[in-house]
Specification:
Blueprint: H1 3-17, H2 25-30, E1 33-37, E2 42-46, H3 61-80, E3 86-96, E4 105-114, E5 122-131, E6 134-146, H4 175-190, H5 197-202, E7 207-208, E8 212-218, H6 232-245, E9 251-260, E10 268-278, E11 282-291, E12 296-306
Antiparallel strand pairs: 1-2, 2-4, 3-6, 3-9, 4-5, 5-6, 7-8, 8-10, 9-12, 10-11, 11-12
């Protein structure tokens, strides 16, 4: 099967899996697997493949941030002893060590307690991400336990999802599902040696601006979480990719610190990055993500390091 066919099969399989409540299309499409779901040790894996890699063969930053986000949230949810609670990401910090993000990836999370002295329940957790068995990233996250939005039922996460992902036939698709497949086909048409399918599919197509870089991502079910908002890890990926576009390719992402302000709602989400420091060997960017109405969704600070000549 050629890469195009493989990717279309992944989309159709993700659509099949997402018909069963308890997980979102984006995670099913990527092939996210729940290996362990305890508070002291959550373990989430992602095999990788042509559907989720950059042009250099590394797994998309959005996918890396997503499995880190999920591993953190799974550990917190297990500690709260409720798989029906809605967890909203409050903050997430990811520190990269420069290792290649080649699949398979494994994210391990661990619960670190509840924020003391706060009116709301904020669960705290730490995470590590290994690529092909070697450490590539580590970080922390905080999550607020909330009631679901009005009219939304939080279903238990279905952990055994492989049996659910027999690809749908195109004739079986609903109009909403057909729109996701059409979006994937359009991304495949734009993909080439310099533009990865996954960047076009997520909407990570940033361009340089005078102060830094800018990117507008189409919002929708292809990037949504269980309550229909843009998935938190994918939003961090949007901000990080936009910040990286503000620098030449000779620079690499070193860290990302994200503070979530409001849900990722609306038809589109816009990321604007500004370089606030550009030294010889290090750089710092501030990225703000807003919705189509101009409401702030996410604030991210990233650090960058120059690769050796």
């Amino acid at each position: 099967m050629n890469p195009r066919q493989t990717i279309r099969e992944r989309v159709l399989g993700g659509l099949a899996a997402s018909r069963v409540p308890g997980f979102h299309f984006a995670g099913s499409f990527l092939g996210v697997s729940f290996e362990e779901t305890a508070a002291e040790a959550s373990r989430i894996t992602l095999a990788g493949g042509p559907h989720c890699v950059e042009c250099d063969g590394q797994v998309s930053l959005g996918a890396v941030a997503m499995i880190a986000d999920i591993a953190l949230a799974v550990a917190v949810r297990a500690a709260l002893a409720s798989d029906r609670v809605r967890l909203a990401t409050v903050s997430m910090h990811l520190q990269f060590n420069g290792a290649r993000l080649d699949g398979p990836l494994e994210a391990r999370g661990a619960f670190e307690g509840i924020l003391q002295g706060a009116a709301g329940r904020q669960g705290l957790a730490r995470v590590t991400v290994d690529a092909r068995g070697s450490r590539a990233c580590f970080g922390t996250g905080a999550f607020m336990a909330l009631d679901p939005p009005a009219g939304v039922t939080m279903h238990p996460v279905v952990l055994e999802r492989d049996r659910l992902s027999e690809p749908l036939a195109e004739s079986q698709l609903t109009p909403a599902e057909a729109a996701i497949l059409a979006h994937a086909d359009a991304a495949l048409e734009r993909a080439n040696a310099k533009h990865a399918f996954i960047d076009a599919f997520w909407g990570y197509e940033a361009h340089r601006t005078r102060p830094g870089a800018s990117c507008t991502m189409k919002n929708g079910a292809h990037v949504g979480n269980r309550v229909g908002h843009a998935q938190g890890g994918l939003l961090v990926g949007l901000a990080a990719k936009t910040a990286m576009a503000a620098l030449p390719a000779s620079w690499t992402l070193a860290s990302a610190t994200a503070c979530f302000v409001s849900p990722g709602e609306g038809e589109s989400l816009h990321a604007a990055s500004k370089l606030i420091h550009h030294g010889r060997d290090t750089a710092v960017a501030r990225t703000e993500v807003t919705n189509a109405a101009g409401r702030k969704v996410l604030q991210v600070m990233t650090t960058h390091a120059r690769r050796p000549a």
